[in-house]
Structure prediction request, 169 residues.
Amino acid sequence: MAIIELFSAADVILDADPANKPALLDRLAAEAATRSGRPAPEILDALLAREKIGSTALGKGVALPHTELAELAAPVVLFARLQRAIDFDARDDEPVDLVFLALWPASNRKGLLAAMAEICGALRDPQSVRRLRGAKTPDDAAQIVLQAVARDAEDSDLVKDPDDAPPGV
Prediction:
């Protein structure tokens, strides 16, 4: 299932104000619980367990906490922009202010990897990241994400055919 099928303005939280990483994960778990029907403590425990393996901060102020849940019926993707950046144990030591959450049914591991790849691909464009930081409404933020995902997919399709690849690719 592609991000375009899962993500809308209803999945956007603008100007969240968590004090720290645990508070942010708690807020995201609560939001995800309302969409998934799974208990918030179960989601939070899974997110915290994943963070113990290593930070899900991608760098440059962006994080992608993610986890699989055994009894999750459908994927959940959320985006939160923070009022002020927080420490997320990022390798580049930059605090995080843009956060995507991906919860996935454990029975569909490939789906989680594909969704994370779509999100990461969309975030490769510095202009999209800048625009997310300045989005005025949840609708604006959702459109920025969906356009960036679509643009990255188009760019990826262009180089899938070896005859169409630029020289040296």
In short: Helices lie at 3-6, 21-36, 40-53, 109-123, 126-134, 138-160. The radius of gyration is 16 Å.
